[in-house]
């Protein structure tokens, strides 16, 4: 009471400093415990401290050279503890100096801790809206990828059944595969987000979407084919469980998953021959003809769906009867679909949101589509794409792969100058080396270029989605696994929901139902296999993946749901109707409820195997 005004202000300042120091000491203590635990569980890297070097794939990766700084990742995960009510900007300096993602466009933590530290609700709203926009852009990029894959399959001389389980399956599952790979390469904790997406997407697609399809359009599946796919899926779940039990994912274990997917493809391709040799056959000829498997199966219907309908955003934009380059470019770069005025209001909003991504894709991704006149060839359009693509490739490399020395001004100017020169040379070569109305002899080669450019766009967008989700988890203290189960799995799975429900309403309910098995199976084997190999090569070998209580719960729900689906369908002669649909939807609701309760009221603990 005897203190003057100046002394009281000084005392208040000292108390704020004490609070900040306590928070910083807590973060340092957490970091010390994490690094100590890491030292006990894995051998130290040779040739340097763990703060500057990372052992991965048999090589030492310096900070910024495609690897990551584990100390920085740990500090940024707990950066929220530096922000207090007295000093809401307390974490800003740490966020800006330490927490920039190694890949991607923006530091999304800056939004919460530097720009809007006192308005967390606004941060949540902005991040969720941006995630929704990125997911919409991702669907557009997949639409540009699929036609290239169809032409590549044709150029390789593959039968439609083989193309369905290889190239076209990869096209449909590309968004899942690249998002899992991006999550795994984000940090040593990224596999938790990946595993959350795998199990969450499995529940969303296999359980919820299959249940919705049964409610909207009851179906009958071929018992042998459905049991075959479910058997592979259950086997994959059990195998992944055993792999994770020791807390690590090795390079060879990732390769094993790819090998099992190859075995699945072989079984699918020979399945009808084996049944015929045994004197078995599908129940009806209609069943035999409806052999499409979505992402993981075969059938002419599926090839047709993938090669034409999914790319409606591109088809019909250029009139080959008008030789004017100006007219062709005007039609091609028109920002909205031709039938925009006839679309419902919500579809118009979606198309407007997708416009920036579609424009960039049109400017950089050449498309060869056999369903269009002249296979979609347009000399002025391809010339523009040839000029634009090299600088965009350089921008991708700078944002995602290049080491720090490449960011020196002279290096940046040299690389982009060379890219612009290469683009100009390619554009001139296209303009003077080809005819306007006639595609060149090796026009199909552009499909490979379109494939490569689409992959770059899909991967870059997936990286950005992962960065936003990880920032959301840090700001609101949500675990990686739960983020994968909810935001990432549901966002990626919305494409499956729209596609499968649309296919079911079009009269192909059986195709939609079996696609609900093929899609999560592809993610489990092909997606996780690729992600595990990438994590071992780029981040750490072996890649850490501790088994947690949350993951055990996911495994139990998913494997139990597969068994329940088999039992319910078997009891109804493999007819999926109202009972099956209500059962599956109820299982998904229970799954999400248990996950959220576990996140809110219990700490996710590690299950360490006995010594």
From TrEMBL:
Keywords attached to this entry: Membrane, Transmembrane, Transmembrane helix, Transport
A GO cellular component entry from the record: membrane
Any single biological process term in GO: intracellular calcium ion homeostasis
GO-annotated molecular function: monoatomic cation transmembrane transporter activity
InterPro entries in alphabetical order: CaCA_antiporter, NaCa_Exmemb, NCX_ion-bd_dom_sf
Gene3D superfamilies membership: NCX, central ion-binding region
Segments traversing the membrane: 121-139, 198-219, 231-248, 254-271, 380-399, 411-433, 445-462, 468-492, 512-538, 550-571, 578-602
Bilayer topology: Multi-pass membrane protein
Compartments reported by the entry: Membrane
Positions of the Sodium/calcium exchanger membrane region domain: 127-269, 447-595
Protein name (record): Sodium/calcium exchanger membrane region domain-containing protein
């Amino acid at each position: 009471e005897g203190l003057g005004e100046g002394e009281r202000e000084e005392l208040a300042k000292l108390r704020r400093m004490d609070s900040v120091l306590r928070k910083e000491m807590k973060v340092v203590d957490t970091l010390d415990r994490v690094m100590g635990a890491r030292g006990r569980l894995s051998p130290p890297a040779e040739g340097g401290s763990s703060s500057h070097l990372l052992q991965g794939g048999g090589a030492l990766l310096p900070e910024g050279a495609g690897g990551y700084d584990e100390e920085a990742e740990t500090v940024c995960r707990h950066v929220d503890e530096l922000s207090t009510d007295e000093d809401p900007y307390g974490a800003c300096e740490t966020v800006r100096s330490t927490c920039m993602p190694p890949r991607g466009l923006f530091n999304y933590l800056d939004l919460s801790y530097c720009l809007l530290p006192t308005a967390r609700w606004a941060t949540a709203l902005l991040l969720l809206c941006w995630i929704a926009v990125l997911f919409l852009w991702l669907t557009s990029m997949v639409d540009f990828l699929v036609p290239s894959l169809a032409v590549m399959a044709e150029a390789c001389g593959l039968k439609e059944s083989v193309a369905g389980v290889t190239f076209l399956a990869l096209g449909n599952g590309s968004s899942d595969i690249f998002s899992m790979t991006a999550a795994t390469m984000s940090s040593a904790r990224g596999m938790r987000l990946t595993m959350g997406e795998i199990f969450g997407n499995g529940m969303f697609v296999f359980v919820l979407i299959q249940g919705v399809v049964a409610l909207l359009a009851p179906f009958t599946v071929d018992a042998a084919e459905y049991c075959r796919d479910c058997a592979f899926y259950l086997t994959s779940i059990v195998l992944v469980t055993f792999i994770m039990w020791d807390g690590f994912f090795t390079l060879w274990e990732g390769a094993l998953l790819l090998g099992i997917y190859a075995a699945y493809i072989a079984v699918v391709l020979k399945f009808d021959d084996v049944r015929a040799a045994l004197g078995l056959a599908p129940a009806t000829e209609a069943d035999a003809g409806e052999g499409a498997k979505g992402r993981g199966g075969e059938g002419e219907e599926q090839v047709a769906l993938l090669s034409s309908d999914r790319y409606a955003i591109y088809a019909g934009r250029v009139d080959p009867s008008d030789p004017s380059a100006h007219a062709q470019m005007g039609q091609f770069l028109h920002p909205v679909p031709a039938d925009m005025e006839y679309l419902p209001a919500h579809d118009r909003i979606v198309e407007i949101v997708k416009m920036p991504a579609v424009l960039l894709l049109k400017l950089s991704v050449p498309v060869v589509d056999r369903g269009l006149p002249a296979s979609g060839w347009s000399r002025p359009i391809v010339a523009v794409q040839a000029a634009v693509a090299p600088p965009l490739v350089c921008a991708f490399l700078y944002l995602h792969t290049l080491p720090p020395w490449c960011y020196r001004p002279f290096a940046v100017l040299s690389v982009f100058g060379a890219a612009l020169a290469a683009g100009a040379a390619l554009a001139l070569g296209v303009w003077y080396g080809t005819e306007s109305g006639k595609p060149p002899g090796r026009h199909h080669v552009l499909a490979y270029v379109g494939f490569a450019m689409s992959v770059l766009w899909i991967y870059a967008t997936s990286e950005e989605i992962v960065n936003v989700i990880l920032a959301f988890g840090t700001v609101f203290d949500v675990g990686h696994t739960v983020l994968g189960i909810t935001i990432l799995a549901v966002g990626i799975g919305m494409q499956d929901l729209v596609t499968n429900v649309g296919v079911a309403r079009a009269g192909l309910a059986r195709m939609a139902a079996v696609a609900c098995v093929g899609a999560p199976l592809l993610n489990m084997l092909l997606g996780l296999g690729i992600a595990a190999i990438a994590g071992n090569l780029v981040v750490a070998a072996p890649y850490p993946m501790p088994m947690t209580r949350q993951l055990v719960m996911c495994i139990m729900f998913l494997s139990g749901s597969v068994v329940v689906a088999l039992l319910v369908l078997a009891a109804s002669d493999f007819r999926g109707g109202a009972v099956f649909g209500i059962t599956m939807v109820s299982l998904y609701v229970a799954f999400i409820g248990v996950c959220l309760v576990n996140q809110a009221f219990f700490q996710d603990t590690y299950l360490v195997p006995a010594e």
